[in-house]
Amino acid sequence: MRYAQGGGLTDAGRAARERVRLQAVERFERGQKNKDIAAALWVSQRSVERWRRSWRERGEAGLFSMGSPGRPRLGPAQMERLERELERGPLAHGWPDQRWTLARVKTLIGRLFHVSYTVEGTWLLLKRHGWSWQQPARQAIERDDEAVELWKKEVWPQVKDRRRPGARGSPSRMRLDSR
Question: Taking every annotated instance into account, which residue ranges of this chain make up the domain Winged helix-turn helix (predicted)?
């Protein structure tokens, strides 16, 4: 990584660097040597050499900041398309079951838009657009809801009332001697 803690420069930091490069251009035009420019602007001689080469090839525009590379972002139209595709379900995109996982959504974003997100970034993107984490309810295919309700009403009350009477004692397995 180019900067400490992977941070890069803020907009203000990039603007400050750009001002230094433009000061170097003024010195290039006056015919100053790279060594003198580096000392005056408190930068490395190698940086001045690169700036001078960019200035010769592209003029002053070659020294302007390109801005932050930023993180991948989906625009509003792309997000609408992603939501439509998610509503179609995983089966429509080649996954055998009806579960969207973050890894699958990440893969779908890559296929549709050629943008690479991390799994965490995918979660933040979905959360930012109102999607929530859901746990699928697991139920047997053979489940009979009427039979379950009948059991709850008739059988469970009978089973629930059959409790053993409480006995004095200890839950410990150790035998207590009464000496």
Answer: 97-154
